[in-house]
Amino acid sequence: MPMRQVRLLTGSMLLLFAAILVFVAADGLTMPMRLALMVFATTLVCWTIFDLPETPVALAGALALGATGTVSEEAVFAALGNDVVWLMIGAFVIASVLQASGLVERLTFRMLAPFRRVSSLFWAVTLTIFVTAFIIPSTSARAAIFMPVFLGLTAAIDRPDVTRALALLFPSVILLSAAASLTGAGAHLVAADFIRRSGGDTPDFLEWALLAAPFGLITSLIACGLILRFFLGAEDRNAAFEARERTERQPLRAPERTLLAVTALIVLALATSSLHGVALPFVALIGALVMASEKISGMPFRKALKTVEWNLLLFLAGTLVIGEALMSTGTAALLADRAIGMLSLVGKPPAWLVILFTVIVATFAHIVVASRTARATVLIPALALPLAGLGVDPAVLIMTATLGSGFCQTLMVSAKPVALFGGMEPPAFTPSDLMRLAAMLLVPFVGFLTLVAAFIWPHVGLGD
After folding, report:
1. What SS3 state is found at 61?
2. Domain check: are 57 and 37 in the same one?
3. Residue 140 near residue 409 (C-beta atoms within 8 A)
4. DSSP secondary structure letter of residue 201
5. In 3D, which of 460, 443, 428 has the Cα closest to residue 171?
6. pLDDT tens figures, 345-384
7. CB-CB contact of 180 with 212 (8 Å)
8. What residue numbers bound the domain in which 358 lies?
9. The Citrate transporter-like domain covers which part of the protein (predicted)?
10. Any idea what the Cα angle at residue 234 is, between residues 110 and 242, rounded to 5°?
């Protein structure tokens, strides 16, 4: 039987089972709860089994919830005006200006110019990519920006094994470092919204960085160390090379210095929003208007708007509506209560074990659900919130599930940066190389996230 028919049959059976469970077998549910659960189950099956595009599925789910009265029509349309969406619009405009200017590429080459040994270059590349997580909101955009840097470095070094190792390093650090920033991935904004709806204090740009940046930095450095140790021999690691002369080494021109200064001011304003009181979306939009001014960057605002990933924003809005339905109807709370009832039969496990279980499920979720934001939308109400009833703060588990879902580099199709660097001709690395790296990175990733979530976050105010 063709795989397409297998998927269709499997998905249809799962949807039928879900419908029977939700509308017939389950008791004590109101009709809005049943509809919210059915839409949630349907979107999950469409994303995983049917492998349908994420955005149309999310929008269809949101429209179904509005049409059935599970959420109000106003709530559906309000999602498009959610502050999360506007924050991302501003961030995308800023990123498009920086990408078009070539400033990030030039600065990267200037920062890497002093390094003449492969091993030191790898560490410098890792730190450079990490910093950009606070400026550029999309992992795909960062991958596109760093592709010329990768090509320039591999041409200068001209060693096949180093080319393979760099091709693994760039997407790995791009994906892992995204955890550091609130705007590093749409999933983080979904998590912040769930924290707010569950009664916690929503972390702002600086608070998110203080909580998650150490995790993003250390896991990025671990990935770099593993690649150096297991994908390069001693000769390659210690190899010296002479970087080619590039125009990027020339002094920055006045417009570029202006762009750099404006970018620094935007990041500073985002980080200090709790002090000056201007909301993050307003800061991002003001920065976007300034950056996309022809007098500042030479790029018309309308041109910058064309580069915004509207598909991602619509997907984000759709998932926000689904999350709203699960919370406002009381479905998430009911799932939590019933999960607690079942789990209480086997006793109350320690908090660290609950967190470890959450991390493991979230880490492997990318094999089933391809989109990072979709994983957060599924994992938070279905995993994090129910398990919070075992005595772990909901905000801690929401952050844990979200950062755990950022592990998405096992397969070529797991993330766009991996596909971009892995899809070159000739291929820079093989699927087995990727699987080998993921297997080595898995244990330190799971272990360190569990350590941070169980023993550090509760003591630094998360969820208080």
Report:
1. helix
2. no
3. no
4. P
5. 428
6. 666 788 888 899 999 999 988 887 777 888 888 888 888 8
7. yes
8. 53-459
9. 46-404
10. 30
